[in-house]
Amino acid sequence: MKITTKQAHFSSPLYLESGRILEPYTIAYETYGEINEDKSNVILVCHALSGSHHAAGTYEDEKKAGWWDGLIGEGKAVDTSKYFVICSNVLGSCFGTTGPMSDNYPSHQPFRLKFPVVTIKDMVRAQMHLLSHLGIYRLKAIIGGSMGGMQALQFAVDYPNLAEHIISMAATYATRPWTIAFNKVAVEAIRSDPRFEDGNYEKDAFKEDGLSGLAIGRIAGHISYLSPKSMDKKFDRNYVNTDGLFELFGRYEVERYMEYNTANFSRHFDPLSYLYIVKAINTFSLSRGYDSLHDAISRIKSNVHLFSFSSDYLFFPEEMEHIYKMMKRNEQSCSYIDVESDYGHDAFLVEIDKFEDDIISILGDENEK
C-alpha cells in the first residue's frame, strides 16, 4: 500500500472555542484506498494523544508500521480496497499540523506558549475544514480510540448529519479527575525540567537526548495505559540480569522497559505539543456549549457504536456505558460492547482481533469476511 503524507494549507480563519483565531494554519494527513464516484465510501480515522496522521502502512525507510496498521489496510477490518480512509494530524501536534512550534505568522519564530489553547471541539472543526477542502460532505464512518474516540463523539454531537456510523473506543463523555491527575504528573515533570526553559527551547532541541521531564511524565502515562494483569504477564517480577539486586538503582524489567520506551518517546515528541494536547484531553466535555449532557447527546443522528475494555483504568467502561444508556432512553441508534481484556487502555491498539469482526459487521461487510 503506497502512502504519502499530504498537507492542506488554510488561509481562512479558524475560530477556536476559546475565542482566539488561528490564521493561517496547516493540516497534515494521509489517505488510503480510492474514493468512489459518489464519495460514499469515506472513513475518517481520529488518532490519540501520541498518534499522528500515519495510521497505516509503512514508508520505505520505516521499520514500524502506522499506529493502527492491524485494523486498516487491504483485506483488514477497515478494508482499503473498499473504503477511502483519511487520517489527519490534530491541531497542536508536532507531526506537520500547526502547533506550538510552528511559525507564528507573519514572523518566522515559533508560537511556543503564545499558541492558543485548543480543545477537542477545535480539532474536530479543523478536520471539518479539511473534509470540505477535499470535497467530502458525508462519511461512511468516523472511528477513533481514546482521544480519537473523544473526537468521534464530538463529531457526532456537533455535526449530526456528517457520518452514518460513529465508532468510539476507550473514550468518555468527559475527562474525570482520575485521568486529569495522571496527566498532572506529566505536565509538572515537563515544566520543572530546566531544559524546558519555560517553553523557550530551540526547535529539535531534544532530538538527540530527549527531555527527561517528558520521559518521566510519560511513565505515568504508560502506567495508565496498561493494567496490573498485563504488567504481570509481560514482566512478572523479573530483574535485569546485569543489575545487582542490592544495588540501590538496580532495576526490575518493568523499570527498564519504562526507561527505554519513554526516553525514545521524548526524542521525537515535542514537549509543548504534549502539554497542549493533554490540556485538550483534560478539558474535554461533550456537554460544554450545550445545556446538559442529555441535550448534547440528543443531537446525535448517527448510528453510534461504543467499545470499552474491561481492564481500562484510564477511561472506565462505566463511562461509555453511561452514554449508551442515555442514548437507549432517547431511543437513538446505539450499540455497546465491553471487550473482555486484561491489557488495559491500550487494548484498542493491540488486541484488534477482539473487535475486528464487530467493525466489519458495523460497516456492513459481515458476509464478506
Strand order of the largest sheet: 1-4-8-5-9-10-11-12
Broad shape = globular
Query: How many domains is the backbone divided into?
Result: 2
CATH superfamily of the largest domain: Alpha/Beta hydrolase fold, catalytic domain
Radius of gyration: 20 Å
Q: How far is the N terminus from the C terminus?
A: 20 Å
Number of DSSP E strands: 12
Secondary-structure class: alpha/beta
Low-confidence stretches: none
Task: Give a concise summary.
The protein is an alpha/beta fold and 369 residues long. Helices cover 33% and strands 16% of the residues.
Describe this protein with a few key phrases.
single chain; 369 residues; alpha/beta; Rossmann fold; Rna Polymerase Sigma Factor, Chain: A; 2 domains; 8-stranded mixed sheet; two-stranded antiparallel ribbon; 11 helices; 12 strands; 33% helix; globular
Task: Give a verbal description of the structure.
Helix content is 33%, strand content 16%. The protein has eleven helices and twelve strands. The protein has helices at 120-133, 147-158, 177-192, 212-225, 228-235, 253-268, 271-282, 293-298, 317-329, 347-350, 356-363, and strands at residues 6-10, 14-15, 21-22, 25-32, 42-46, 72-73, 78-79, 84-88, 139-145, 163-169, 303-309, 334-339. The strands form three sheets. An eight-stranded mixed sheet has the order 1-4-8-5-9-10-11-12, with helices on both faces. It has a two-stranded antiparallel sheet with strand order 2-3. The longest helix has 16 residues, at 177-192. The protein is globular and about 65 Å long.
